Amino acid sequence: MTDDEAVQAVRGCAGALSLPAPATLEAVAEAESVIGFPLPPLLRRLYLEAANGGFGPDEGILGVRGGASQADWNHLAETYEDGPDPSGHIPAGLVPVYDWGCTVWPLVDFRDPAGPMWCTHEGECWPQDINLAEWLTATMAGALTVHDLLDSEPEPSKGDRLDLRDE
Question: Which of 36, 64, 129, 130 has its Cβ near the most Cβ atoms within 10 Å?
C-alpha cells in the first residue's frame, strides 16, 4: 500500500468511525519537538490530512495534542515522555502509538522515515519486520493482532531484541 492509498483508506474510515478532525500543524510540531525526531512522513500526513489519531486497531492509535486518546494517555508526546518503559531503556525515537493491553505496545521508529515497527512487552523490545503502512493496513483489516505480535518475539539467542530489564 502506498502512502497515498493509506491516507485515502483512513479518510474513508473517518466518517464511518467518527474519527477526530485532522491535527493542526502546531500540534504536530509540538509532538516532534518533544520527541526530538520528525514524524515519519506517512504518520505526519495521516495526522494532518485524515484524522488526529483514532485509526488502526480497535479504538485506534493515539493522536497528537487535541486528538484521539487511549486509556490513560492523552496524546503521542505524553506517551513518549511517560510511556510503557519507566526504566527509560527504550531507545530514543521509538514512539509508542497504541496500547494492546497487558504491557504490549507497538512502537514506531521515528529515526527512519519508513517508520519501522517495534514491539515492547514485559521488558523486551524487538523489531516487527514491517513498517507503519504495513502495520496499519494489517491491523485495520484485522489481519494483525496482539497475538501475532507476541508470536513474533524472537528467541533470546537471536539477538534482535533489546532486553530492557535490570539495565
Answer: 64
List Cβ neighbours of 5 (8 Å cut-off, separation of 6 or more). none
Amino acid present at 19: L
State the number of CA atoms in the 13 A half-sphere of 12 facing the CB.
Answer: 7
CA distances from 74 to 32, 64, 121, 122, 136 (A): 16, 8, 21, 23, 20
Q: 3-state SS of the chain: helix, strand, coil percent to 5? A: 35, 15, 45
DSSP E strand stretches across the chain: 94-96, 104-109, 116-121, 124-131, 162-163
Give the three cell numbers for residue 157. 539467542
For 3, the grid coordinates are 502512502
pLDDT per position as a tens digit, 69-94: 987 888 999 888 876 666 667 888 99
Closest to 100 measured CA to CA, from 127, 130, 71: 71
Give me the helix-helix angle, 3-17 and 132-140, nearest 10°. Answer: 40
What would the grid cell of residue 156 be?
Answer: 533470546
* Type of residue found at 106: P
* Rounded Cα gap, residues 59 and 17, in angstroms: 9
One-letter amino acid of 16 = A
Average pLDDT for 56-71: 90
